[in-house]
Design a protein that fits this description.
homodimer; 362 residues; Rossmann fold; four-stranded parallel β-sheet; three-stranded mixed β-sheet; 13 helices; NAD (chains A, B); DHQS/DOIS_N (chains A, B)
């Protein structure tokens, strides 16, 4: 196990990465104030891992209240969030009761938001069970639910007390979800670490075969980069926006097709290629760079052709992006491969990208 | 106009108190980043004041989006909150769009919560239009909505950029609501300022006649005390809990009768008398002290007899209080008149209070 440390102005917390960590109550106990936790998971993950974790905590004399939610991005709504509040109140959970998120990004985002709002702030713990959640959403304190007009529109910044990323939990991860997680891993290479991109190109086969050593290295590298960026800019006033590479296009794909049609990671992957193509048209990337982005996405088993939403719909959906400022959509683009920047894009270039070679021809 | 300053670890903001402030766009402009604001009010307040404020802002070239919500504590729900989010997204409000709360405590709490959650945090301004909101809810950053199982159960701490308390807006305040606000004013005297309690006893008639000088002094004194306490303990880990004098009983009255049946201030007033009676039974207050509390509430036109919810229902409702810790209800009681403390109460004493002389006999 290795432990990274995320230090912020008001708090700091450990991110434990390794194997056989799910039964390790000792990693959680220092962060549980009262002898009561709400253990929140979904119908897919709960049958696999909830009983183990529950037993480990109950062995330490902790009262565990399990809350099992429906699975999927289309349940990342107020209605599901309210199921958490209902259960917490029915079980008389207090504002010092710790909430544990056991699941992927949707569970992590919702439990974090629920913890932030329950009695104005209960402690919470992230135990991510997907690669995507391990490398991205469980770290950094972004919590949210979706709104029909935009993804993650309703949420707050709220940090967990500890993150435990157990590679063993990825054994049960479907191939498609593994690929989706790899999109966010690739993102870190593209936006700030060209050497890591090279490592990924060399090790993609091992990653897709769930080689634990390779996965662990990929998660560590990703989390270390994320922790570094978040510690500089917790609330995304500046550099943190770079972590949104591929997300402006990606969120539009998710919302345009209906949340849950494409996985978040798939949409981000295709979105990163659109961002790369945009960067090429602006003169910053070469054709070879764009092909390299396309190739690594294909290696990861990710789609590279985005759906044809129609330019008007693309623009409408992207106009709800949280980076919009004074009415202008701001994109995370590539200055060079391995270095991202935030920029606006001229209308004609956008038009070209959104009708171009990486958009599906009906 | 006088200006108080609330200083917190991460932020500070002014609280302007005086007359003829609603048209003073100059008080708001330094806190509006973009030339766009969402001006959120309710069906009662909007016809009285929205147009004036809107005009004052539009004269400064600001694009004002009015959002008018239904009025009342029973609308302090997720459904109403979602009306705000819908409107913000439909009008393409950005995360730098300022939300202005123009209304009483319900509007202030909901707009604050909406601002905290909209795109993970938009700036907001409080313009309280009731005495209760001016002396209590608009200052200190507590935001929330109600849950059927408990008042203000879902919310966050989120501070406004500026608070503008204009005494002129109280001209339209119904007598019953003025009295409800006076309950929170009396609270400051009881919990920490005996001299102020004496002043209130002398000046209650002027306050109820809406004498602007008297109101302004009461609001200043209340806000100064609140600002002092909040600056010591923003997130209620300690001393801030004292501001909850009367609220554990009061919230139970509100929830037990259905939100909106008693006004919040009425419930807090009656709850303070129950807290005083509890304090007497514990040997801390004299009978004369309790009578003095009862008398000032009566002077303010407030009810002093609480509804008979039944002991079991009282306990059930109070067990959801946010101050509950390790299953024990913690009350704010009076150590002496003018000094509050947090304490637990033996079951037999609680039983006696909840069936005693300040509970309605059917």
């Amino acid at each position: 196990m290795i432990t990274l440390d995320l230090t912020l102005p008001d708090t700091r917390y450990p991110i434990h990465i390794g194997q056989q960590l799910l039964g390790r109550a000792d990693l959680l106990l220092p962060h549980i104030k009262h002898k009561k936790v709400a253990l929140i998971s979904n119908t897919t993950v709960a049958p696999l891992y909830l009983a183990n974790l529950r037993q480990a905590l109950e062995n330490q004399g902790i009262n565990v209240i399990p809350i099992v939610l429906p699975d999927g991005e289309d349940f990342k709504t107020w209605e599901t969030l309210n199921q958490i509040f209902d259960a917490l109140l029915q079980h008389r959970c207090e504002r010092n009761t710790t909430l544990i998120a056991l699941g992927g990004g949707v569970i992590g985002d919702m439990v974090g938001f629920a913890a932030a709002c329950y009695q104005r702030g209960a402690p919470f713990i992230q135990i991510p069970t997907t690669l995507l959640a391990q490398v991205d959403s469980s770290v950094g304190g972004k919590t949210a639910i979706n709104h029909p007009l935009g993804k993650n529109m309703i949420g707050v910044f709220y940090q967990p007390r500890v993150v435990v990323a157990d590679m063993d939990l990825l054994d049960s991860l479907p191939e498609r979800e593994l690929s989706a997680g790899l999109a966010e891993v690739i993102k870190y290479g593209l936006l700030g670490n060209l050497a890591f991109l090279g490592w990924l190109e060399q090790n993609m086969e091992a990653l897709r075969a769930k080689d634990k050593q390779a996965l662990s290295y990929a998660v560590q590298t990703s989390c270390a980069m994320k922790a570094d960026i978040v510690s500089q800019d917790e609330k995304e006033h500046g550099v943190r926006a770079l972590l949104n590479l591929g997300h402006t296009f990606g969120h539009a794909i998710e919302a345009g097709l209906g949340f849950g049609t494409w996985l978040h990671g798939e949409a981000v992957g295709a979105g990163m290629l659109l961002a790369a193509e945009t960067s090429r048209l602006l003169g910053n990337l070469s054709e070879a760079d764009v092909q390299r982005v396309k190739a690594i996405l294909e290696q990861a088993g990710l789609p590279t052709i985005s759906p044809d939403l129609g330019v008007a719909t693309w623009l409408e959906l992207m106009s709800h992006d949280k980076k919009v400022s004074d009415g202008e959509i701001r994109f995370v683009l590539l200055q060079t491969l391995g270095q991202a920047q935030v920029a606006t894009v001229p209308q004609d270039v956008l038009q070209q990208v959104l009708t171009g070679r990486f958009i599906s021809k009906a």
